[in-house]
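User: Run a structure prediction on this.
Assistant: Running it now.
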Amino acid sequence: MEHHATILWRRTSESFTYDSYNRAHEWRFHSVTVPASAAPGFRGDATMVNPEEAFVASLSSCHMLTFLALAAKKRFSLFRQPTWTVCTIKPTKAASLPIR
């Protein structure tokens, strides 16, 4: 099964330096557009979804949908399934190398 997404970024600043370029972009899935940005720790906009949050949400969503499928196959009757997920990302020595 293939899954497709289009990620669209447009420059909004005159210069393109690490400090000046905008991190806002769009994720497009079929007819849905999601405003996204880098995480605030990477100069992103905290009001938009960032890739780290989306990663955690996708894992949590898959886990929940698997649980619901198993519950339905066992003929359990569910009405609500809240899921709270926390992920901590810590840089490693290999990941902390600066991009030059």
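The chain has one helix and three strands.
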